[in-house]
Amino acid sequence: MKIKASRNYKELRVGAVVLLALIIILATLFSIGGQRKMFGGKVRYKIYFNSTGGLYMGDPVLLTGVEIGNVSRISFPEEVETQKIVVEISVIEEAAKRIRQDTRARIAAASLVYGKVVELSMGSADEPQIRPGELIRAVDPTDYSAVVDSTNLMVDDIRQLIWKLNQGEGMFSAMLNEPLEIRETLHNLSLSSKRLSHLLGGLERGEGALGVLMKDTTHVREIMESVRKAAGDIEEASLNLKDRKSLAGRIINDEEYGEEVMNDLRDAIKSISSIAAKIDTGQGTLGRLVNDEIMFLALQDVVLGVQSSKLAKWLIQNRRKAGERERGR
Description:
By secondary structure, the protein is an alpha/beta fold. It has two domains: 38-138; 166-313, no CATH class. The chain is 61% helix and 14% strand. The chain contains twelve helices and seven strands. The protein has helices at residues 2-36, 93-96, 145-167, 171-177, 179-204, 208-216, 218-242, 250-253, 255-280, 284-291, 293-308, 310-328; strands spanning 42-49, 60-63, 66-75, 85-92, 104-109, 116-120, 135-138. A seven-stranded mixed barrel has the order 1-4-3-2-6-5-7. The longest helix is centred in the first third of the chain and has 35 residues, at 2-36.
């Protein structure tokens, strides 16, 4: 008797728990249904899109941000020649009266939960209402395929350039893959530039005949300053070449033209180095003028002697006037 009463009590307790769970489930359903109008009347509309772009059945439909329904069907149109996708939506009757002829539909990204949604714009009050089952005009989202295609083309160009560099094509690739000869050329260019800079520095300090001349003449000083800056630019250019930062156009893509340019550059560097070495060691007239101040003083004495001689001055002026008359004929 006690066992039977205990069993009845357990069954009663289980039944009470199940009944309570059903009440909670029903309350939850009615609560959600009240919020989302699940049990109210629905109105259906059609929308034609060029592409649904990840939209699925059941995705929300929003009217200016407020959820009013969902996507009920996605299909192809019956007309084969119509290259569109038919999206059917179901919205609550309360919101249907706000869907007017100027209402527009578009597919938009909602969130990580929803993925995509159909957004409807609010219609104007003076526009007629769209009747159930009729078409809502669509505004297709921006097509990014052209941007993607252009990006792919750019990536292909970069790949081709890298392939050429790896294969040793072009002058720039030669600098990357066979740098020994290029380094020697740049080293010679740097030495010549430093030697030229040293000579110009001596001229600025007034060393040698040309240095004294530069001290006495403002115009000559300006010229030498420009030359010094040019030497600095040459040295800077050589450093940039060592860093492998600049070679473009034909030099990159035309190997024959690049070789021709490098050969001309080597010849010019050798000539400059030879001339600078001769000047620095005092060879030739210019070398003596730069390094031998006695020669300059002797030349200055000759000029002073000519200026102090009336006969010499008269002879120079006479010959100059004769030359001017001869040139004027």
